[in-house]
Amino acid sequence: MFNISFLKSDYKKIFFIFLISFLMEMISFISFNFSFLNTLFFFLLVLLLAIFSFVDLKWGAYLLLAEIFLNSMGYIFYLENGGLKISLRIAFWLIFMAIFLSKFIFLFIKDRAAIINFFKNFAFGKNFLYLSVFLIFSFILGLVNNGFSDAFFDFNSWLFLILILPFSYLVYFSKQDEKDKFWKNIFLIFISVGFYMIFKSLFFLFLFSHDLRPTISDLYSWSRVYALGEITNMNNGFYRIFFQNQIFSFLIFYFSFIFLIKENKKIKFNFLLISILSLSVIVLSFSRSFWFGFLSVFLVLLFFIWHKYGFKKFLKTFFLGVLSLSLSLILIFIVVKFPWPIAKSSFNIDSFSERAKVTANESAISSRWALLDAMKVEIQSNFILGKGFGARIEYISSDPRVLQSSPDGKYSTYAFEWGWLDILLKMGVLGFAIYSWLILLFLKKNLITFYSSADYLYLIIISSLLSLSAVNFFTPYLNHPLGISLLILLILFFDYYKNQNNKICLK
Fold it and tell me: Which ranges constitute the DSSP H helices of 71-162?
């Protein structure tokens, strides 16, 4: 049975997975200068996943998820041939899906009735079926209109939506105690890798704010080449440390924060500490999308708390939210201003207020608004069916990196910052509506169950889903393996938790 108390007894496993995460990134960092290590570990890890998946598909799923949680774009290790890079993530997906399909087909031949019942009990089965039809249609449309290369490399992120099949299969064909263990292990991996992501973000902030050369030069180059994230000097010595997998800090925050506010008698220090650490990552990312996602959803959370639990609980939630945010700012200040070695950053609170200004003077903002204008025109011209995957838009960018190669600022791309508009442009209003309805239906079921049960765990799912959807307005996640994987896990966990017998409600 899913119970949070297991974290107390499994701290050794959490620490072990944390160390493995650190070791993998250390090897990846070393392989930046010794390319043979990159190739060697690429094949070793692929072989390991193949063995795990063949022996027990659950173990393959654990390794696959660990890579998704740990890595932003999937290139922690990769295979390069003739300028084409095959990421470890894609290799993992191919091997895992191939082994799953072989097991699935074998079971279908052996027991067709079991497979039929499996699909009858598939969570949100019709919605995923409709979405799959529109995805395939948009891919074919992209092949016709935009060419194979652009269409495929734009579409391939959506392939991770198929992971709902093997994960549903693993849950459905398991006994209750095996299901409990499966979700427990996934959560252990998630929280362990999440702790490492928090540590890494703060450690990078410390190194760059103290200008520890040549280490930071190598770290910056490694992060750029391996597509791990963005490290940007904010002109006042303060560095923005942004990794795409920091999106998981939202789930960690709401998990710890909601457990914190549900305590009536005392504040548990461990949940407060995790809330502070995870929120500090959202802050130091200097991502306007993250800030918008956090602030907007926190206001919604306050409304739910007031409406369901009353004004007293609302005040406690507001107080603990302000406390967590204040302490996270203090933590960032301590990391940046730590006196040894000499701090080189002029970090102050004005750094955040300046970043929060949505003006056209900054290159990133002006480029995003220029892209928005161009997207509006293209969406209106292909509103019903969309333009298909790989659809390119040319616009004038103010990005210094674009200006280096194109002095007039002209830039053509099929990867857009506006996540929801990206979906609308490529899948049309019908595909957009199908995907939106899936998310809204899932949100509705969580809200109904939350109000009928007063179970705090549904509030965690609601807050995480809303944050993911809010961030997707300005930074694409719901059409990216990170966001798609998180959505799948939330849906399947909701189905498991709601339907298990004699479950422990987190009231």
Answer: 88-110, 112-120, 125-146, 148-155
Read off the amino acid at residue 312: K
341-379 burial, b at 16+ Cβ within 10 Å, e below that, comes to: eebebebeeebbeebeeeeeeebeebbbebbeeebeebb
Which residue shows structure tokens 């994230």?
A: 229
**Please, are residues 32 and 222 in contact by the beta-carbon 8 Å criterion?**
yes
At 358, phi and psi to the nearest 5? -95, 75
Condensed to tens digits (0 to 9), the pLDDT of residues 442-481 reads 999 999 999 888 888 999 999 999 999 999 999 999 999 9
**What letter does residue 141 receive in the DSSP assignment?**
H
Q: What pLDDT, in 10s, does the model give residues 244-297?
A: 999 999 999 999 999 888 866 666 888 999 999 999 999 999 999 999 999 999
- Is-contact 57 170, C-beta < 8 A? yes
Could you tell me the sign of the dihedral formed by the alpha carbons of 333, 334, 337, 341, in that order? negative
Q: Where are the alpha helices (DSSP H) in 242-310?
A: 248-262, 269-284, 288-309
Neighbours of 164 (CB within 10 A): 22
Which ranges in 454-475 belong to alpha helices (H)?
Answer: 456-471
Let me know if 144 is exposed, middle or buried by CB neighbors in 10 A (0-12, 13-18, 19+).
exposed
What is the spatial distance between Cα 262 and Cα 254, in angstroms, rounded to a whole number?
Answer: 12
Whether the CB-CB separation of 2 and 255 falls below 8 Å is answered with: no
Give the whole-angstrom CA distance, residue 73 versus residue 483.
Answer: 12
What's the pTM? 0.93
- Which pLDDT band, with edges at 50, 70 and 90, does 370 fall under? confident
CA atoms within 13 A on the CB side of 482: 23
